[in-house]
Design brief:
Elements: H1 9-21, H2 36-47, E1 58-63, H3 66-84, H4 89-96, E2 108-114, H5 132-150, E3 153-157, H6 163-170, E4 177-186, H7 195-198
Antiparallel strand pairs: 1-2, 2-4, 3-4
Helix pairs in contact: 1-5, 2-5, 3-6
């Protein structure tokens, strides 16, 4: 019995390196814009993501206009202030000292949205799990992120945004779901470890502590991992 061939060693190493060294970039963006040809390659990588029923529900909004980015930045500032109020003491100080976006520093932003009501794909795989449309759009985000790292492009995901305000600013219809707002551009360096880990906000969980076989591990509990 024959089996399909994998990549050669150098190609495998490159794939795993991109996964290992991918970073959520919030600082160090350079003013040089990403060339259209390169941006198209990244979007093409995203567009080649897997999707339920081959519905391809993602839509890409490239945001370059400074006035639009300033409006999005204002949305962030308001949401960030509200988020910071949920923490106290040393944790609040730690939060306030972290840089959590690069909306104005990056020369372009990218909003990836999902048309989960699209008839493309003829509902295959969505009748029992309709949320797989959103999952598919997230796969597109990850594809773009890994391709960007291979190209030396930094990507930062800004989740501290009030969705209704973002919809209004980018004229996103109600039936379309904003999935990811990304800052995108060349950077001066990629950090050796994730910013949140370096800042002491959280530490990486070992694989063995999130792995079980055949059934859910009841030791995981509802309060997170020990």
């Amino acid at each position: 019995m024959t089996r399909a061939e994998g990549f050669d060693e150098n190609e495998r190493n490159a794939v795993y390196r991109a996964i290992r060294e991918r970073r959520d970039v919030r600082r160090g963006f350079l003013p040089e814009p990403v060339p259209d040809e390169l941006l198209h390659r990244l979007l093409d990588a995203a567009h080649n993501a897997p999707s339920v029923g081959l519905m391809q529900p993602w839509r890409f909004i490239v945001v370059r206009d400074l006035a639009v980015r300033q409006k999005v930045h204002e949305i962030f500032l308001k949401a960030n202030k509200q988020a910071m109020a949920n923490y106290e003491g040393e944790q609040q100080q730690n939060y306030s000292g972290m840089k959590l976006e690069g909306i104005l520093e990056a020369p372009q932003n990218l909003c990836i949205v999902c048309d989960s009501q699209s008839n493309q794909g003829h509902q295959l795989g969505r009748r029992t799990m309709p949320e797989t449309a959103i999952y598919s759009a997230v796969c597109a985000v990850q594809n773009l992120w890994l391709a960007a790292r291979a190209e030396g492009i930094g990507v930062g995901w800004v989740s501290i945004l009030e969705p209704h305000s973002l919809r209004s600013t980018l004229k996103i219809p109600e039936q379309i779901t904003p999935v990811a707002y990304l800052c995108l551009g060349y950077v001066d360096a990629f950090s050796k470890e994730p910013d949140l880990e370096r800042a002491g906000w959280e530490k990486r969980t070992p694989l063995k502590s999130v792995l079980s076989f055949d059934e859910y591990n009841s030791d995981w509990g509802e309060g997170g991992l020990a």
